[in-house]
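Hey, quick one: can you model this chain's 3D structure?
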Amino acid sequence: MAKTALRNARVFDGRGLTEPRTVVIDGPVLGIDPAGATEIDAAGATLLPGFIDAHVHLTEPEQLADLAAWGVTTGLDMACWPASRVAELRSVGPADFRSAGPPAIGPGGMHTRIPGMPASSIVTTAEAAVRFVEARVAEGVDYVKGVAEAPGDGGPPAEALQALVDAARERGLDTVLHAATPGAYHLAVATGARFVTHVPVIGRIAAEDVAAMKTAGQTAVPTLTMMEGALPYFAGAAGDYVANVAALHAAGVEILAGTDASAESGAPVVLPHGSSLHHEFELLAEAGLTSVEILRAATIAPARAFGLTDRGEIRPGLRADLVLVEGDPVTDLSATRAIRTVWCAGTEIPR
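Sure thing. Here's the predicted structure for all 351 residues.
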C-alpha cells in the first residue's frame, strides 16, 4: 500500500487543533517517516480521527460505504442478526463494523414487532438471560445489547436485566441498555450497565439517576437524532430529549455521539447512515456540549469506552482512519460536513 504524507495539517488531538504539521499514512496505519511518500498539501484544512457512530443498525454492505463517505470509519451496531450477516458485514468494509448481535428483549413492547426478531431474544428470567449471553459469546459479539422498559411496558424483568449485565461482565463484555422512558432509564442505570442508549422523549431522567450514572462511571449514548425523528409518535413531546442530555452533561456524565441510523422496516424513523452523525453533532451542541466535547464524543471517547485501542486518535501506530475537512470544526462545527478526503485503514475512500 502506498505511503502518503499530509503536509501542513492542523490535527484535532482531543483538546483542540495543533499547529500545522505532517501526518504520514503508511499502509493501514499512521507512520513517522515521510520519505518516499506522495505528498498532499492540507493547508487550510483540519485532520480529524475517523468518526465513530456509537449506535447504528446495519443490514447491507452498502451502508458501510455510506458511513465512510461521511467520515464515519467505525460503526458500532446495536442489533444485527443472523450471525452470518454479522460475519459478512465484518469482512466487507470500507468502514469497520462491530456488533452486539441480536438484542435481549422482553415479551412485550415495540421490539417484539420488529420483523424477523428472533424468538430466542425474548428473555424473561435470570437463567434465560445467562443463556442469552452465552449464545452471544459463542457468536463472537463485541458487546451485549439489552432493552430496558419501565415496569409494565413489556421489557425483561429487573432480575433478568441484571443477570444479563452481570453475565456479560463475567465474560469480559460490556452491556448497552436501551432506555427511552424515565422508568426504563431508572431500571437501566440501576443494573450498572456500562452504556445506556437513548434518552426519554417525554419526561425527565430523575436527578438521582443522573447522579448515579456519574458516580458509577456509566456512559450515555443519547441518539438525539432518532429521538427528534420520533417526536411525531409522542403526543405532547416538547423537547425533553435535549434537556435530558443537558442534565447528563451538566452532571459530568460521559456522552458519546450515536444516531440510531437505520433503514430497517419496523424502525420508528428511517435515518441515513453517515450524514445523520453530523446532525447529531448539531443536537449535542443544542444540549450544551462544546465543539471540542462533540468531536471527542465521536472519536477518542468512544474508542476508549468501547476498548478500540487502535483508533480514535492521530498518532503513529494507530489505524489510519482519518477525515480531512475544510476549515476549523472547533470554531465552526458545520465544517465537519465539508469533507475533502476520508481514509479507512489507510485506503482513500472515493467521494
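One thing worth noting: The chain has a mean pLDDT of 95.
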